Amino acid sequence: MTDRAPLLSYIVNSYNYERYIGQTIESILAQTTADYEVVVVDDASSDRSVDRIRSFADPRIRLIVNQSNLGGIASYNLAVEAARGEWLVNLDSDDWIAPRKSELQLAAAAADPSLDIIGTYVKFVDAAGAPDPAAKELEESANQPRDLQRVDCWIGVNPLCRSSTMVRRTAHLRIGGFSNPSMSRAPDYELWTRALREGCRFAVVPEPLTYKRQHSAGVTHGDPLATLLEMSYSMLRNLMPLVEARALNASLERMVDFVAGHEELCSLRPIEAFRLLGMFMTSPPLEDYVDFLAQIASADADPALARIGRRCLMIVGPSSSANRRAQNAEIAKDWWRNQSAAWENAYRQLSSKPFRSMLVGVRNWMRNRRAG
Amino acid sequence: MDAQSPRRLNILVLLPFLAKAALSLYVMRAMRERGHRVVVAYYLHGGGGYTEDPCADFAAEGRLVDLSTRRGDEGIKNLDELVRERSIDLVLQIGSPAAYAQLPYLKEMHPRLPIVDTLYIRAAHVLSYCLFEACFDGVIVESRDMRDYLLSVSAKPDPCVRIVENGVDLNRFAPSTREGRNHVVVGFIGRMAPEKNPLAFVELAEQLQAKLPGASWRMYGEGPMDGAVRERVAAANRAGVAISFEGHLSQPGIGYAQMDVLIVPSSKVEGRPNVVMEANASGVPVIGAPAGAIPELIEEGRNGFVLAPGEFGRIGDLLAGWISDPASLDRLRKTSREIAEARFDAVRMFDAYEATFQAFASHSA
């Protein structure tokens, strides 16, 4: 390791992925861009992850081993502190990347120096590394050209896979790292939306250069209510100011629809659900995620919040506009089915014997008329 | 009809879809057999992800109504016509999301018509109920747990919550013998879904396998977590844990016959699960989590035990005790069936539903 800061710092959080982390590190070492370091933080794995990491014996790999399990957010922040590169390159320890990934991302950065966060398209693989059974649907949904500067791209969905991203170090320091240790389901989403709020510029290299592993041990889908709450907080804290500043009024409706139509909303006590919706109507000051949760749960806080949220839900309904659109589509489908039946009946009548006889009569009359 | 005989009711039931084995259809068929005229109306075609019940019996009597194309004002008009033409005495809302927004307008047209909601678990439709509760004359729930929850979230001084405890067919679920079995089979039967917490069962097996080589573990069911559970079971098997994943079970009785104890590791969202009653009726004791109404079903040490799935030590001790003393397990199996006969008989449930329907309908009479 030299004293000169490298161009890239790969950041790998390791926790009990002994089976996968070797492939993760190998994919970094196989990159076509050579100017990098790898900062691995092992969060007190109980398996032999640390042995696997040490087996590489590459001076560019720096391993930090936590004495106790600190959680993903604290480990990530430790890695960022230790990293020295101009770009911080994220890679989860169960994912891997294609050899030219960083080269192509740097080319994108060179073409547009205003970029701060650059992702790539993603391939979804199963626990064994084979294409996930749902890969086609997942990739069709994830790998879409999107303008990530637009608020609507972020409403209720995280279009940027963390393992695909590299973040300009100066931008990362400006917006701060993961600042809410109590978040566990959607901290990436909070970070990206905060970056958007702070004016960071995004791009995605439209090539599938990141391999994202889908398996049951992943945390993202383990607690859907927590995911809803963390995304709601992020939208309130980070997207709502942009909605106000840009007069994106329809985007407010979309955010409310997302929350009101979310199937996990009913996992909250009704008064809590009302208060959550009330926040989208009033944007109360929020210190942090803990404060947000406290405001939802507090029975003593402003009673108007629940009344406003309840009224909001009375208007939009627990089923969202997406559901309303689906219902309208059902109605439209029924209408077309009925029309189709009517047209078919009309056709059958036209094709019936008396009608055909009439047509023949008309044709003969026309012929005779022309002949005459 | 003499003065003593119960009033024959015209009941309109609003269902989201027609799912086979739904408790609502089971109860409504019983009500029909008791002489009530039940009109079943549904909002979506198919079985909602479950096997569909075509309800040919209701259709044959002209009492199956398709509301799937009737939305908004058209839907309200349709309900109004149904109520008038069929002289409906009672409307039962059983989980139809689209019905919630229509029912206040039906109530506006028929202020004396009792409209009653049915809510089985804390999540799901409780939020919708709270939004529209002004139009409801009452709510039917299955447990004290659910009643207390509704009382705590309702804005009404008295939302008129009535408990009707569910039950199972005691003839369909009968005890089998354990002869020839020299080890304890621990089972899970349920939907492979987060609220049923199937991965906790796998974890329990992983934790106890080394301590209990005389135990084997068996899972039945299907659902959205199928893949995750299979993957986890396969990993456990590789680690030497003897779990078998049997998948969908068309006849639950077969599953109960092959196990000695049922684990119900449900997470916080739980109602009054049928599996506890079915297991007991089959002579199988239950170790159930303290979730929903499970503690109301289990009499400690008589038909099972209330223990969180993470209480590995205590569960392990129980299983070890049954392995070393099979006679104690046989005694527990016997009292499990006795409790099922005393408390979980479906006939009692039908009686309670009928009495509750009569009570609600009498408000309009």
Q: How far apart lie the N and C ends of chain B?
A: 16 Å
CATH superfamily of the largest domain in chain B: Glycogen Phosphorylase B
The Cα radius of gyration of chain B reads 22 Å
Strands of the widest sheet of chain A, in order across it, are 3-2-1-4-7-6-8-5
Provide an overview of this structure.
The complex is a heterodimer of chains A (372) and B (365). Chain A is of the alpha/beta class and 372 residues long. Chain A has three domains: 8-222, Spore Coat Polysaccharide Biosynthesis Protein SpsA, Chain A, CATH 3.90.550.10; 225-319, no CATH class; 322-371. Helix content of chain A is 50%, strand content 13%. In chain A, strands 3-2-1-4-7-6-8-5 form an eight-stranded mixed beta sheet. The longest helix of chain A is centred in the last third of the chain and has 31 residues, at 321-351. Chain A starts with 7 loop residues before the first strand and ends with a helix. With 365 residues, chain B is an alpha/beta fold. Chain B folds into two domains: 10-167 and 346-362, 3-Layer(aba) Sandwich (Rossmann fold), CATH 3.40.50; 184-343, Glycogen Phosphorylase B (Rossmann fold, 3-Layer(aba) Sandwich), CATH 3.40.50. Chain B has 14 helices and 13 strands. In chain B, the strands form two sheets. Chain B has a seven-stranded parallel beta sheet, with helices on both faces. A six-stranded parallel beta sheet of chain B has the order 10-9-8-11-12-13, with helices on both faces. In chain B, strand 8 (184-189), helix 7 and strand 9 (215-220) form a beta-alpha-beta unit. The longest helix of chain B has 18 residues, at 326-343. Chain B is elongated and about 65 Å long. At the A-B interface, helix 10, helix 12 and helix 13 of A face helix 4, helix 5 and helix 8 of B.
